[in-house]
Design goal:
seven-stranded mixed sheet, Rossmann fold
Length: 250
């Protein structure tokens, strides 16, 4: 197995350019949060994120992370959250959700719910972390598979994980800046964003769809912000349950 605590860097060991990009994205997040929530709620959310990150570092919480290791042992990769360090987990919590790897059986359930011919579609994972979902998507005949992850250390590990898959690409960037391919799309998200970022991503996705009308599906795991999807007149609910939902452009 590749998983090793040395693979996960901290903010202090990142190259200067990567640190600059990360700090710029954090500043952008702070401004958007203040604009959306106001100063008080933004500050409360920041302290709450710090509290969650500290709790995650306690021994009992760290032990609970090791429930997702089977996939990594079977495929000789590092996609688990068990060795995620405090700094990247705190930053992830600060601007959205902590890193979790997609469960293979739930991912398969979501893919089976898509009424599509996979070979005609591009798969895009927004907030792709260490690329677990990209590797799962590689088991289907998608035209292309793209991951978008803003955390440099997670994306560095993701690139190593997908190196053997020529159809898979992992990009280090803010999802709000991603330009969606003009091909039919399956957009996958494991609840990666706070509401202001989620709204911006949906606006970009709608703009892309209206500029180039095509089949487009959103597969949303842990749908905490499903109300944002339900409020989009250009989307309709296809199927789902309490764990995930699928919407399509209409």
């Amino acid at each position: 197995m590749v998983a090793d605590s040395n693979l996960t860097t901290t903010a202090e060991t990142l190259p200067r350019r990567a640190r600059f990009r990360l700090l710029r994205m954090l500043g952008r997040h702070w401004k958007d949060s203040v604009r959306h929530y106001g100063w008080r709620k933004t500050i409360r959310q920041s302290f709450a994120a710090l509290g969650r990150a500290l709790r995650e570092s306690l021994p009992d919480h760290r032990r609970a992370r090791f429930g997702d290791l089977d996939f990594d042992f079977d495929h000789n990769v590092d996609t688990t959250r068990s060795n995620a360090k405090f700094v990247p987990q705190f930053i992830a919590m600060l601007i959205g959700s902590p890193y979790f790897a997609s469960e293979p059986w739930l991912f398969q359930e979501m893919m089976q719910a898509l009424p599509i011919e996979f070979q005609a579609f591009t798969f895009v994972d927004l907030g792709s972390g260490k690329a677990r979902a990209l590797l799962l998507a590689a088991q289907y005949p998608f035209q292309q598979i793209i991951g978008v992850e803003f955390m440099p250390d997670l994306n560095s590990i993701a690139r190593r994980n997908v190196a053997a898959y020529p159809q898979v690409e992992s990009l280090e960037m803010d999802a709000r800046d991603f330009e969606f391919p003009s091909t039919p799309l399956v957009v996958y998200m494991f609840n990666p964003f706070p509401e202001p970022v989620f709204a911006a991503v949906l606006a970009n996705l709608e703009c892309s769809w209206r500029e180039s009308p095509r089949a487009m599906y959103i597969a949303y795991r842990s749908p905490e912000l499903e109300h944002s999807l339900a409020g989009c007149k250009w989307l309709e609910n296809v199927t789902g349950n309490e764990r995930w939902v699928v919407y399509r452009a209409n």
